[in-house]
């Protein structure tokens, strides 16, 4: 009975965490779904956002300034990955991993500033000492704030990707050859996408630091997997709702994040060893990523236009042959 | 309109796979020229078109479009001058975007992309009229994803996109090769129509000799990275497939070899 009580009382927290990671997953969506790049920078940039926010607050900066700086720091991280990828010709995945490694050092240094030390692996950001917009103590307020964040972010992105400029990013991901033939610099689009994506991820990092009351060098470990899980779960569960509407697609990403953390809480309630959680997430994501490949391989073109056309053509030919035979 | 001066390109230089694809191409297109390009396997037809489009940097030589040197510009900056249709119908359009979105992107080729909304209602009306002229029923499917269209439909759409913003040069790289004969004939007819209506300067690579003779006002034949035959006007109109093949043997000293060439 008590366990159930604990489980139920953990649900609002799961929602809050899910929304923070859902916002982070919107960043992942931009690179993974729109630009068709698997960007591993996020494992580092989420911590960068947290570290910058916590450090600035500790140094006495107001919250909005700290969060804007976190956003900018994330954008810089994305710019580094973009630079590696487009200017230095390094494959996108490797570029992200390199930046991630750079950020490991940078994050330690950023947190060191707050402690007046050469480096620090974590710094506290307690709601007792600071005026935070989300924290575990005020769950109701936190949920409302996160909702507003998600809605505003989705609205801004809906606008951005609907503009002439935003369309070039979508085109770049959809067909780079076509994009260049239409005068779009695909390199520039990719850099802009990476910058925007990591800015959002870092912003989510600043929210996460406030929520859990600290910034920690390890907080980004496996972030890309959680982000992908949110994107994939959102698509699988709510894809039928969102079909062609971009805003609904982004909403389903956030919902995907919430579902992920509710499942997470449930699994803990059931009594599974929590050490297995990262493994399970990775396996689930791997399976979902395999689905399109398997579909292609084993159900090749069952419903494609080409196959239908081929069938129709074959039928027509058979008919003609039959006619000739009769004559 | 377009001038190629001594354009050279070698792929994989310094390796055993080194391939001299263009060996000093000189070509000058006058405004309104519609040139068909034929040649054997590896003659350099597509390479020449891709050089003009800026897909790769050329090794030496000059490319001048509308009195502007472009040989040092990246591919997306060539796009300001050039409309392109590719052999693969998948290449010219973005499958996951709507028909009207594809058109809207093409309508802004070579222009600064701003933070204005990507497509206006005035545009939509214009696109609907244009699509209706294709007679493929696409005008009623403007918000459908391009991935749902057939190869022929996509190629027709790509043609429309390539000519939507009047290009200085239209490059057609075997753009009917992947289509069935009936659809290919339709797309070719549409190409003729768009080129005539907009008074475009165009180059069309084809492996169909009959098409090469019947379309355009000028024909060039390539072999081994060189232009070996350049004919226009009355002389071109009176060409036959047999005469072309004879011309090829005469100019190159080889049999005409193109495993996809259609000789009738």
What's the short version?
Chain A is mainly alpha-helical and about 325 residues long. Chain A has twelve helices and two strands, in the order H-H-H-H-E-H-H-H-H-E-H-H-H-H.
Descriptors:
A: about 325 residues; mainly alpha; ABC transporter involved in vitamin B12 uptake, BtuC; 2 domains; globular; B: alpha/beta; Rossmann fold; six-stranded mixed sheet
Overall description:
- In chain A, strands 1-2 form a two-stranded antiparallel sheet.
- Chain A folds into 2 domains: 10-272, ABC transporter involved in vitamin B12 uptake, BtuC (Orthogonal Bundle); 279-327.
- Helix content of chain A is 78%, strand content 2%.
- Chain A is mainly alpha-helical and 327 residues long.
- The model of chain A has no long low-confidence stretch (mean pLDDT 91).
- The two termini of chain B are 32 Å apart.
- In chain B, strand 1 (2-11) and strand 2 (19-29) form a beta hairpin.
- In chain B, the strands form 2 sheets. A 6-stranded mixed sheet of chain B has the order 6-7-8-3-9-10, with helices on both faces. In chain B, strands 2-1-4-5 form a 4-stranded antiparallel sheet, with helices on one face.
- The model of chain B has no long low-confidence stretch (mean pLDDT 91).
- Chain B is globular.
- Chain B has 264 residues and is α/β, with parallel strands linked by helices.
- Chain B has 9 helices and 10 strands.
- Chain B has a domain at 2-81 and 167-252: P-loop containing nucleotide triphosphate hydrolases (Rossmann fold, 3-Layer(aba) Sandwich).
- In chain B, helix 3 (99-107) packs parallel to helix 5 and helix 5 (151-164) runs parallel beside helix 6 (181-198).
- Classes of the chains: A mainly alpha (327), B alpha/beta (264).
- Chain A binds chain B through residues 160, 162-168, 170-171, 174-175, 177-186, 244, 305-306, 309, 313, and chain B through 53, 74-77, 79-80, 82, 84, 86, 90-97, 101, 104-106, 108-111, 113-118, 143, 145, 148-151, 161, 180.
């Amino acid at each position: 009975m008590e366990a159930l009580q604990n489980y139920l009382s953990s649900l609002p927290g799961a929602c809050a965490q899910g929304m923070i990671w859902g916002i982070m997953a919107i960043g992942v969506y931009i690179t993974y779904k729109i630009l068709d790049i698997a960007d591993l920078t996020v494992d580092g940039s989420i911590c960068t956002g947290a570290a910058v926010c916590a450090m600035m607050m500790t140094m006495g900066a107001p919250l909005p300034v700290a969060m804007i700086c976190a956003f900018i720091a994330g954008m810089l991280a994305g710019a580094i990955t973009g630079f590696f990828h487009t200017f230095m010709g390094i494959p996108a995945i490797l570029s992200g991993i390199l930046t991630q490694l750079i950020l490991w050092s940078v994050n330690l240094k950023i947190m060191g500033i707050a402690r007046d030390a050469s480096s620090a692996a974590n710094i506290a950001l307690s709601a007792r000492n600071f005026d935070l917009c989300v924290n575990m103590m005020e769950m109701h307020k936190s949920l409302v704030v996160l909702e507003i964040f998600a809605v505003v972010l989705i609205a801004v992105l809906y606008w951005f990707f609907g503009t002439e400029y935003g369309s070039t990013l979508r085109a770049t991901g959809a067909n780079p050859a076509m994009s260049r033939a239409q005068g779009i610099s695909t390199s520039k689009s990719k850099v802009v996408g990476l910058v925007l994506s990591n800015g959002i991820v870092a912003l989510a990092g600043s929210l996460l630091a406030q929520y859990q009351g600290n910034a920690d060098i390890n907080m980004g470990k496996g972030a890309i997997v959680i982000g992908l899980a949110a994107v994939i779960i959102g698509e699988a569960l709510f894809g039928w709702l969102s079909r062609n509407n971009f805003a609904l697609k982004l909403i389903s990403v956030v919902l995907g994040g919430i579902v992920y953390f509710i499942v997470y809480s449930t699994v803990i309630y059931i009594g599974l060893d929590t050490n297995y959680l990262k493994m399970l997430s990775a396996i689930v994501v791997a399976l979902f990523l395999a689905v399109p490949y398997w579909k292609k391989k084993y159900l090749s073109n069952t419903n494609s236009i080409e196959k239908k056309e081929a069938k129709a053509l074959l039928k027509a030919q058979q008919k003609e042959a039959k006619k000739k035979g009769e004559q | 309109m377009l001038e190629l001066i001594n354009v050279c390109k070698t792929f994989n230089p310094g390796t055993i796979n080194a391939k001299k694809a263009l060996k000093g191409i000189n070509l000058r297109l006058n405004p309104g020229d519609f040139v068909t390009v034929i040649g054997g396997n590896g003659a350099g037809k597509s390479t020449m078109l891709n050089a003009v489009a800026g897909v790769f940097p050329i090794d030496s030589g000059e490319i001048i479009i509308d009195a502007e040197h472009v040989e040092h510009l990246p591919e997306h900056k060539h796009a300001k001058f050039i409309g392109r249709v590719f052999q693969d119908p998948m290449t010219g359009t973005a499958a996951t975007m709507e028909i009207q979105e594809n058109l809207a992107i093409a309508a802004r080729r070579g222009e600064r992309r701003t933070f204005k909304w990507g497509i206006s209602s005035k545009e939509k009306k214009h696109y609907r009229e244009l699509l209706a002229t294709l007679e493929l029923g696409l005008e009623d499917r403007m918000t459908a994803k391009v991935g749902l269209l057939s190869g022929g439909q996509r190629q027709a759409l790509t043609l429309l996109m390539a000519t939507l913003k009047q290009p200085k040069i239209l490059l057609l790289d075997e753009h009917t090769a992947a289509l069935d004969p009936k659809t290919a004939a339709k797309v070719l007819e549409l190409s003729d129509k768009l080129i005539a209506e907009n008074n475009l300067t165009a180059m069309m690579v084809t492996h169909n000799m009959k098409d090469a003779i019947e379309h355009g006002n000028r024909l060039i034949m390539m072999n081994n990275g060189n232009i070996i035959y350049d004919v226009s006007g009355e002389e071109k109109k009176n060409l036959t497939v047999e005469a072309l093949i004879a011309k090829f043997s005469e100019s190159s000293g080889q049999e005409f070899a193109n495993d996809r060439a259609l000789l009738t």
